[in-house]
Amino acid sequence: MSSVDSTKSADLKVRVEDVESKEQTPLDAHYDLARMIDWRMLPLLGLLYSVALIDRTNLGIARTAGMEEDLRLDIGERYSLASMIYFIPYTLLQIPGNIILRWLGARTWLTICVVGWGFAQLGMAFVTTWGYLSLCRVFLGVFESGFFPSLVFIITTWYKRYEVQKRLAIFYLSSILVGSFSSLLAYGITFLKGKADLNGWQWIFLLEGIFTVLLGILSWLFIPDFPDKATFLNDTQRKVSTLLLSHETIVYPVFQMILDRVEADRGDSIPDAMTWAKLFKHLRDPLLWAFGASILHIYVGKLLTLSLAALMFLASTVPAYAIVFFVTIILRGMGYTEALALLLTAPPGVFAAAVCFFFAWLADRTRHRALWLFVENLICITGLAIAAYSKNDPVRYFGLFLVNAGATSAIPGVLAYSANNITSHTKRSVQTATIIASGGIGGIFATTVFRQKDYPRYVNGLWATMGLQILMLFILGITTLVFRRRNRLRREGKIGPLEGQPAFYYTL
Fold it and tell me: Where, by residue number, does the polypeptide cross the bilayer (predicted)?
């Protein structure tokens, strides 16, 4: 942390202590305010992300609803390429998106993102070739790239470390639930086939695109911002702090309860200004990229670190993306009709949402992450094996339940695990972007490894996905050993403060 940031942090800590000495209020006493923040923030963010997930992954539903015949997506790998091309800008623009987020503010930036990809979705309703479809998917990836890391970044700044996973799970599972029933909605929309000379798949893109644009406009009015910029709190729920920022004295409101609780928990309630020097410093930090990079490293002219944290998120997103892009296609391959394939996509999502929240509650309750991620990976591996090798279609369908549950639970788990083990706003900004960018690579992997020539069982794709889950089990073992060792050395006084915070210890 720079000397300017240290001065700001010290100044605010003095003010916090001054207020606490006057009020003598326990840091966790404001439960009503905490619930107000939950209700003000999580449902809206969950709805926004559910729409993002639907718009990102409805290609499989549209293919089943007639797009394959109209655009000839059954030729070669056209469908996989059209699905994959989205993830290239989505991956590359993650870090710039989080930098713009702090510059423009959450409300402005997220509104731009939502409205932008809504128009991209609208454009997909009128494409006449798979090439134009791919171009619209590129624009979809451009505007969605800044969205998910921004949501994760915002949520992790409002809560303490052992409150984060439940909130991430609520926001994420709400999107899974809505996304699961999107296939039912799409099935209903397909009955508009022939109206205005549009096919059923075109109506899906048209109506969902219009809804996204309208939701983007409404988000301008209701989107929550960072704690230091929140505008939905009244004067009795605020305090005013003066910070020296860019050689100017700026007075702005900071939410008392959030400020004090986060400061006491991890010491990074103050948003430090992003600079090029900090950006490259964070990108060079092995811990940002790798849980356990001090153990796994190789020399090729200079030290290279293995991106274990990114690999964990990549491993979790591959089965999740495989399910959303290929579940209706896999069900059609089992012999189900188009209508039944669309209807049967909902139950696995509902089951996954329940399992996701259970593990999130358990992880926050026990204050452990790696153990439950290990269990979730075993569930996913079991489901993949059943889906690949069972001769009974209903049993294979049950395997999809397990795959969806394991992968869905692991995604907020990995995000919470990584967010728990860093400090500072600028590092958190870079970290969320790099981790989620690896999810984009997972999307590329999932959309290309499930090849058309492997239809309908996709055994090779299922095995590749299973291999990533096994790799993640190995990574979880490494991170546990490294974090446990560092915590022990810190308690014995053999190393200095972890992450620059005297009371900070890594979450196992």
Answer: 79-101, 108-132, 138-158, 170-189, 201-223, 303-327, 339-363, 370-389, 395-417, 429-450, 462-483
Please give the model's pTM, rounded to 2 decimal places: 0.71
Beta-sheet strands, E only, within 343-408: none
The predicted pLDDT at position 13 comes to 45
At residue 166, what are phi and psi to the nearest 5 degrees? -60, -40
More confident residue, 382 or 54: 382
89 within 8 A of 135, measured Cβ to Cβ = no
Q: Is pLDDT at 238 greater than 80 in this prediction?
A: no
- In one letter, which amino acid is 67? M
Distances (CA, A) of 220 to 105, 107, 149: 11, 6, 18
Cα–Cα distance measured from residue 405 to residue 414, given in angstroms and rounded to the nearest whole number:
14
Interatomic CA distance for residues 370 and 61, integer angstroms: 34
In the chain, pLDDT over 90 holds for what percent of residues?
24
295 touches 478 (CB < 8 A): yes
User: Parallel, antiparallel, or unpaired for β 238-245 and 248-255?
Assistant: antiparallel
User: Residue 321's closest CA among 398, 436, 408?
Assistant: 408
pLDDT band at 131 (very low <50, low <70, confident <90, very high): very high
Taking 80 as the threshold, does the pLDDT of residue 359 lie above it? yes
Measure Cα distances from 475 to 30, 342, 373, 433 in Å.
38, 36, 11, 20
The candidate with the shortest Cα–Cα distance to 117, out of 150, 96, 142, is 142
Phi then psi dihedrals of residue 163, to 5 deg = -110, -10
pLDDT at residue 243 tops 80: no
Whose tokens are 């800008």? That residue is: 89
Cα separation of 503 and 195, whole Å?
Answer: 64
Q: What angle separates helix 393-419 from helix 308-333, to the nearest 10 degrees?
A: 160
Locate 89 and state its tokens. Answer: 């800008």
Q: Are strands 297-299 and 238-245 parallel, antiparallel or unpaired?
A: unpaired
CB 148 within 8 A of CB 45: no
Crossing angle of the two packed helices 370-389 and 393-419, in degrees rounded to 10? 160
Antiparallel, parallel or unpaired: β 303-305 and 297-299: antiparallel
Determine the Cα–Cα distance for residues 315 and 255; give it in Å rounded to an integer. 37
φ, ψ dihedrals at 446, nearest 5°: -65, -35
SS3 473: helix
Which H or E element spans position 251? strand 248-255
Where helices occur in 85-163 by DSSP H, the ranges are 87-92, 94-104, 106-124, 130-144, 148-158
14, pLDDT greater than 50? no
